[in-house]
Amino acid sequence: MLSTGFNVVGFNWMSSPAVTDLESIVMDWLGKMLKLPKSFLFSRNSGGVLQGTTCEAILCTLTVARDRMLNRIGRENIGKLVVYGSDQTHCALQKAAHIVGIFPNNFRAVATSKEFGFTSTQHTLEVHGYVLSLDTSSMG
Ligand SMILES: Cc1ncc(COP(=O)(O)O)c(C=O)c1O
């Protein structure tokens, strides 16, 4: 909300120092609030980013997860990547999986039930011949 309020292009520090500095400060507040290790904070040469929308954040996360896994197993193995989400997960995850090249059959919506508090259990996440590239959770 803060970055949108400024209505500036905050690509990086060169294009908007004020927004970039504000982002660093706010991300450190969040990191401290979540009690993340100090190595996650900007003040320790690390940090995170604020995304404009949830879909944007999901797409960025999935892109990083895909690239980390493909760097390990080879780009030619993209067909082996699978993405799990619960059947309660927003459709934005499936769309993002499609955009980053996950094969449609390799997106798995794990069934949940009210009886088990809408959780997915470990045994439902068994992977056979595929590489688990992202397991997401939904809150709220
Ligand atoms: C869990 C979840 N994911 C994704 C979205 C999509 O959000 P946005 O329109 O901000 O990209 C929403 C929106 O309500 C959401 O609740």
Automatic annotation (TrEMBL):
Q: Which cofactor does it need?
A: pyridoxal 5'-phosphate
What does the record list as GO biological process?
A: amino acid metabolic process; carboxylic acid metabolic process
Q: What Pfam families does the record point to?
A: Pyridoxal_deC
Which SUPFAM superfamilies does its entry note? PLP-dependent transferases
Write the record's keywords in alphabetical order, separated by commas.
Answer: Decarboxylase, Lyase, Pyridoxal phosphate
Q: Which is an annotated GO molecular function term of this record?
A: pyridoxal phosphate binding
The answer to keyword Repeat applying to this record is: no
Family note: Belongs to the group II decarboxylase family.
Its name, as the record gives it, is Tyrosine decarboxylase 1-like
Q: Give the organism the record lists.
A: Nelumbo nucifera (Sacred lotus)
